[in-house]
Amino acid sequence: MQFQKDVEIRAPREKVWNFIWDVDRFISCLPGCKDAKTIEAGKRYSATMVEKVGPFKVEFPTTIEVLETEKLTRIKAQAAGTDNKISSRLKVELEVNLKGEGESTSLSFVAGVDIVGKLAALGHGIIKRKADQALDEFVQAVKQRLEGDS
Amino acid sequence: MLKRFRLEEPESANEACELLGRFGESAKVYAGGTELLLAMKEGLVDYERLVNIKKLGLNQIKRDNGTIHIGALCTHRQLETAPDLQRSLPALVKLERNVANVRVRQVGTLGGNLCFAEPHADPGTLLIALGAKIIAEKGAAKREIAAESFFVDAYETRLAADELLTEIQVPVPPAHCGVEYLKFGYLERPSVGVAIALTARDGKKSVGDIRIAVGCAGPAPKRVAEAEALLKGKSTEEAIRSLPRAGEVAGRAAQAISDLHGSQEYKEHIVGVLLKRAFQSALSQC
Fold it and tell me: What is the pTM of this model?
């Protein structure tokens, strides 16, 4: 499943960049993401992704690995986790791009999400829709946090 | 493999609600079990307790003052073979006859089907077009939920966790009313469903009231008032000319999801095709 979310933020690029690396605050913008921990600053992090579709709940303890960074411009990361309870695996490849000058920044998220295992029984379309909603909420929360900060 | 669970056997709806309230997310209502037990066997859901409501006697079909009262525990098979329904709601009987397969219909209940809110279920769509009401009970409190607002999202309804769906009330269609539900899908899995209930006026020269609902294509069945407005009160000729437009509107409203059974665009197109056919069939019944 491929997703792309773009958002214009009324904040300088440096502020947006620093916010992304304030992993606790950044990750808490993603609905259902909790317990963000830094394993190795700038390289490895962990978090738990919790999602619910009606009575179905999934909980993926996830490791996030930063693969590439270009300061103030780009971050490439991948995340992987397994919900042993329902034998399902989550894999996310994420690219974050920042552009812009002065007080405005264009932030773009390109995510490739793969979910395999029993969770797929709910239907690919339903999962994709839920993930899309979560990412919409995520970018809006990021925007609000950054624009809300004085 | 089904994990161990405790089977609670309440003797009243009140007691069932009390158990659901007390045990919260660790308990679930057990009616027919056709979907719940499959999900439990697959390990997709895990409940410590199942609240068996099969003994609550909610399996009657009654008719009074122009309303058909269907107990939540009526099985699809029961609805398919009820002589009263054959006369008053043939469209529902036809729908039920085509739900899944006979093994599922023999034990699966209408209430369970609605509560599970699986997106590819048929009954919700027709019940919306029929203007049905869902009766939910919690202790002594009872409330009505219009079928069109019962479904929130895939697998999600307006029912509170400690509420029990006890009955479905369907108004008997008036004279000169035609009702049709058509679906399209692969084997037992519908990927598009369209329901229409309409009344004809002036010897079928014009369309009176009309209700249109779409389901299966998107996350939850829904009424399409915008498509209804294109046809309601129009001369039959004008309404027929407006069907392609109404089909487009309904297709978009379905929030169709692309999957192995068809792309979003394909399902939207099928909504239009079924809407046209359902309109013609419903009109012919008036």
Answer: 0.89
